[in-house]
Amino acid sequence: MFPYRNDVRKILIPYLQQLTAEKWQANAYHNSISWVIEHMAQTEDYWVFQIGMKQNSRKLDNQNPLTNYIRIREETDKVLHSLKEKEWERLVDVPDFSDGWRPPSEPTMQWLFHHVYSHEAYHAGQVGVIARLNGFDGPLF
């Protein structure tokens, strides 16, 4: 399942690794690249472990967003590869969000992983927008 899940990362991670500390924190936009990458890691952790697996959050290193971003995917890939075929259709209990958001389709484990990967692709594009708003090149997607 999801054989292309890491394609965005093949471009994004090398891009992030070459950014200076100033570019990581540049904030001509209301969020910095650092904030977005940390948000992506925390969101993946939340959906996969707390919502999908009903486990505690994985402890993330709050000092290094890139390390968190890489590490949480290593953890979620273990879950992805461990799921049996029948588990993909298991319903997950989605919490009530204050803005009223609800999943657009039945919230199964398969939906949950699709949601996580779509969320990542959206925010990877946002990294490019943030870079350009701050006056430097973004990733070459």
Write a structural description.
By secondary structure, the protein is mainly alpha-helical. Helices cover 56% and strands 0% of the residues. The protein contains 5 helices and no strands. Helix 3 runs antiparallel to helix 5. The two termini are 23 Å apart. The mean pLDDT is 95.
Distance between the termini: 23 Å
Strand content: under 5%
- The unreliable regions are none
Question: What is the average of the pLDDT values?
Answer: 95
The total count of helices amounts to 5
Q: Output the helix-strand order.
A: HHHHH
In quaternary terms, these chains amount to single chain
Structural class: mainly alpha
Helix fraction, binned, reads 55-70%
The backbone outline, from C-alpha atoms, is: globular
Count of β-strands: 0
- Please describe the biggest sheet, giving its number of strands, its sense, and whether it closes into a barrel: none
User: Cα-atom Rg, whole angstroms?
Assistant: 16 Å
